[in-house]
Write a structure and sequence with these properties.
Its main location: plastid. This protein is mostly helical. About 70% of the residues lie in helices and about 0% in strands.
């Protein structure tokens, strides 16, 4: 039965990579089959885990599992996870930023300040993404819902279309796409796969990568990526500003010869209210180690406050389909990821990987594991599926090899988003990338070529200065 469960889990991952079915539908099928076959694991009073089909609801009193009822309880366990609620609430905070107009205002203000040159506009796009990253936990929602309309209108304002002065728009589009991946990496709430990696690090390595710790580890390498990636993109694309930019009324843009954006109207009461809530939210996240208030509770509090103050209406919550969809599939993924470990799959893969890497020192083995995790993204079409499939097993392998647990957790955490730059050739590593590519400014081969160059830059930064920074932090 355990072998059947492993087989089904493999098929779920293969289905994620090869079919057009929605992730939530595939998760529902997997949970249903695993429940009816009682292929989950249950916890006994003796402190052991056993497959549900081995539980005896009559004669085995110490087993908490009770037949199909117990199997279904196990299937639903992921939906009570605080990690899942953190992401769910953060989605609604992102919705509040879009509904109130605060997210677009942040992006425009940054562009207005730094937009004196094309390279300056590139940096402004990066900064706008980073400002939105902690509050909008979806690459697609942040990139496609907030940034992409602003970037596209800016390109059109500068007289750039897919057929005229294309390089200007291509540069801005590429900046937005790569900034999306960097912001997904440096914040725990920056991307949906991050909580999965967070949960596996705590389960397998005993490492707590909560919001403040995650951000602290990303400060130096993230800042270097922010500093060098726009410049690299500028060198690779070599954009040239059109002589006569044309005006565009879309999204409150007005063209000037400097490429700046006209000021927007004064902030509304809803924007001021949301700003205050987000400042409190971010402060509590950053001081969790002192207050003891968990990140999930802070996000839940913020969601209640935006509803109580009228920033969002309950109808807005009901209409936020991406939040409900993510809540469903992420809860299922957390269940599957947990039982990957409980039924021995992560241990089995870890043992085999450890046997191959055993001759290496713990630090060398850690670097090889990080490179393997990064490069293996070539075989996946989703950063979420990649994290679910390999983060746990590779962490298990590192534990067998005696690798520094905090260093392993950091590398896998940060590379989970950054490795998306390797798969522009398939354009499915993040939903936002599909939106950006569809604008027609960048050819397919250029996505792949430029993505490879940026991926190499990320590796140099995170395996160079990043390692030195984590050494200073005492992570290994």
């Amino acid at each position: 039965m355990v072998a059947n469960a492993h087989c089904l889990r493999h098929r779920v991952i293969v289905a994620l990579l090869t079919t057009d079915f929605e992730i939530s539908f595939l998760i529902a099928i997997a949970l249903m089959i695993l429940t009816f076959t009682r292929s989950f694991a249950c916890h006994t009073a003796a402190g052991t885990w056993i497959p549900c089909d081995q539980c005896n609801p009559v004669g085995l009193e110490e087993a908490k599992c009770a037949g199909f009822e117990g199997a279904f309880d196990a299937a639903l366990a992921g939906y009570s996870s605080d990690v899942n609620w953190l992401v769910f609430c953060a989605f609604h905070l992102g919705q509040a930023m879009q509904v109130s107009g605060l997210g677009r205002r942040v992006a425009f203000r940054l562009v207005n300040v730094f937009g004196g040159s094309l390279l300056g506009l590139g940096y402004a796009v990066f900064l706008a993404e980073l400002c939105l990253g902690p509050f909008i936990p979806s690459n697609a929602a942040r990139g496609g819902g907030v940034m992409q309309p602003m970037v596209l209108s800016l390109a059109q304002t500068l007289n750039s279309t897919p057929t005229r002065h294309t390089r200007v728009g291509a540069f801005l589009i590429l900046c937005a796409a790569h900034a999306n991946l960097i912001s997904a990496s440096v914040f725990l709430t920056g991307s949906a796969p991050n909580p999965i990696v967070h949960a596996k690090a705590e389960e397998l390595l005993g490492v707590e990568m909560e919001f403040a710790i995650w951000l602290k580890g990303a400060l130096l390498p993230g800042a270097l990526s922010l500093l060098f990636t726009p410049a690299l993109l500028y060198l690779l694309v070599r954009p040239k500003r059109a002589a006569n930019p044309r005006p565009s009324s879309s999204y409150d843009l007005s063209a000037t010869n400097t490429g700046q954006i006209a000021p927007m109207d004064a902030m509304s009461p809803r924007e001021w209210t949301l700003t205050a809530i987000l400042v409190v939210c971010l402060t509590l996240w950053m001081t969790q180690v002192y207050t003891g208030v968990t990140a999930s509770l802070v996000a839940f509090m913020a969601m209640v406050l935006v509803l109580a103050t009228g920033v969002l209406e309950w109808e807005d919550v009901l209409r936020n389909a991406k939040a409900w969809d993510s809540f469903f599939w992420l809860g299922g993924f957390l269940t599957l990821a947990q039982h990957f470990t409980l039924l021995g799959l992560s241990g089995w893969f870890g043992e085999h990987a450890a046997s191959v890497l055993k001759p290496l020192s713990p630090l060398a083995a850690t670097l090889v594991i990080a490179l393997l995790y990064f490069v293996s993204m070539f075989g996946f079409s989703s950063i979420t599926a990649h994290a679910v499939a390999l983060a746990g097993p590779l962490m298990a392998a590192s534990r067998s090899l005696g690798c520094p647990p905090m260093l392993v957790a950091a590398l896998i955490s940060y590379l989970s988003g950054l490795c998306g730059s390797l798969v522009f050739v398939s354009l499915h590593s993040a939903g936002s990338l599909v939106v950006y590519f569809a604008q027609g400014y960048v050819k397919h081969r250029d996505w792949f070529r430029i993505g490879g160059c940026v991926a190499l830059l990320h590796l140099v930064i995170f395996l160079g200065p990043g390692l030195a920074w984590w050494r200073i932090l005492g992570w290994f």
